[in-house]
From TrEMBL:
Principal location class: membrane
Gene Ontology CC: plasma membrane
Lineage per the UniProt record: Bacteria, Pseudomonadati, Pseudomonadota, Gammaproteobacteria, Vibrionales
Gene3D superfamilies from the UniProt entry: ABC transporter involved in vitamin B12 uptake, BtuC
Protein name as it appears in the record: Ferric enterobactin transport system permease protein FepD
Location in the cell: Cell membrane
Similarity section: Belongs to the binding-protein-dependent transport system permease family. FecCD subfamily.
Domain of life: Bacteria
Gene name for this UniProt entry: fepD
Cross-referenced InterPro entries: ABC_BtuC-like (IPR037294), ABC_transptr_permease_BtuC (IPR000522)
Bilayer topology: Multi-pass membrane protein
Bilayer-crossing regions: 35-54, 87-106, 118-136, 143-161, 173-194, 215-239, 259-288, 300-318, 330-348
GO biological process, one term: siderophore-iron import into cell
Protein's UniProt keywords contain Transmembrane helix: yes
SUPFAM superfamilies for this protein: ABC transporter involved in vitamin B12 uptake, BtuC
Length: 357
């Protein structure tokens, strides 16, 4: 006899259908409309980034430079400084934002971030080691070293977080990431202090900045970053299943281990390339997923698409602020830290109060 007061049994098929219905975009939310609005805002910020700085340049002068290709001072500023740093901001912002979405998804930890989990510190440590021990100076070598550093650190932190656990433990992963990141940062600082040549080569890069005057750096990293973003988009449906829990995800046909490994590979690729280009820049991967989630809801695909635009929007805006408020400019990593630190404190209080966001 059926108990009318007992909850109905739910199969994996029912869970999948209800999940898909919850993720269907409604006309009122119009996620594609929000995406177009963000794209227009990003184009506007990129335009402002070309105009604004220690020396303001009028739109007519910018058009003259682009069309006539003159050798004036304004031409040098635009071609050798502002345009490259805007392109770098687009790449690095998108890479860090998508990496943050992936990290928070596979760890199911709202405080996860490439900086907090030590991924950026691992990439920086490997680049520094290559400079000091191997004398590596070329950009391709830096990219490979940063990628392997980010990958090894990601795998090690993930292994520590899942050691003797049936499934991912968000608290253990966070603590392991903070500890490993602090250890690698301390060792890196010791190496640079004891090696004047390494200190001179790494001090500007290690601060985290978009002030890169060579677009060849961006051209080398653009394909790996695009591949990492495409991989994140491909595994988005599987990450939606994984958000329901590993057992339910397996019941829905998701290969949990393969998805987690693919996510770790994408994270390492995105963080390694962005760190090799611009140095370690924190808090982008922490803030953007929460902002994007408020716009997209739980759908991982829309979350990633929003993050691709929100990341560059935030980092280029921070770069503009750093250029405007000080003559010698404030590094973008410092501006993002001033914004990101209060956000981290707020999120930590939310997690402590409610157990989740």
């Amino acid at each position: 006899m059926t108990n009318l007061f007992s909850p109905p049994e739910t199969s994996c098929h029912d869970v999948k259908i209800s999940r898909q219905r919850a993720m269907l975009p409604t006309r009122r939310s119009s996620p594609s409309g929000k995406l177009i609005a963000l794209l227009l805002a990003l184009l506007m910020i990129c335009t402002v980034s070309i105009f604004v700085g220690a020396k303001s340049i009028s739109p007519s002068m910018v058009m003259d430079v682009l069309l006539a290709n003159t050798d004036s001072t304004e031409s040098l500023i635009i071609v050798e400084s502002r345009f490259p740093r805007t392109v770098i901001g687009l790449l690095v912002g998108a890479a860090l934002a998508v990496a943050g979405c992936l990290i928070q998804s596979i760890t199911r930890n709202p405080l996860a971030d490439p900086g907090i989990l030590g991924v950026n510190a691992g990439a920086s440590f490997f680049v520094l080691t290559g400079v000091v021990l191997l004398g590596n100076q070329s950009m391709p070598e830096h990219l490979w070293l940063a990628f392997f550093g980010a990958l090894i650190t990601s795998v090690f932190v993930y292994f520590v977080g899942t050691y003797k656990e049936a499934r991912v433990n968000p608290l253990k992963i966070t603590l392991a990431g903070v500890a490993i990141g602090a250890l690698l940062a301390g060792v890196s600082s010791s190496i640079t202090l004891m090696n004047p040549m390494a200190f001179d080569q790494m001090r500007f890069w290690d601060a985290g900045s978009l002030d890169i005057r060579d677009l060849s750096l961006a051209s080398m990293a653009v394909l790996p970053i695009i591949f990492g973003i495409l991989l994140a988009l491909v595994i988005s449906p599987a990450l939606d299943n994984l958000s329901l829990g590993e057992d339910i995800a397996q019941g829905l046909g998701t290969n949990v281990k393969l998805v987690q490994l693919a996510a770790l590979f994408s994270i390492a690729l995105l963080c390694g390339c962005s760190t090799a280009i611009a140095g370690p820049i924190g808090f982008i991967g922490l803030m953007i997923p929460h902002i994007a989630r408020r716009l997209s809801g739980p759908n991982q695909l829309w979350l990633t698409l929003y993050a691709i635009l929100l990341g560059p929007l935030l980092i280029i805006s921070a770069d503009i602020v750093g250029r405007v408020i000080a003559v010698n400019e404030i590094r973008v990593s410092i501006v993002t830290a001033f914004v990101g630190a209060p956000v981290l404190i707020y999120l930590a209080r939310q997690v402590t109060s409610f157990g989740k966001l």
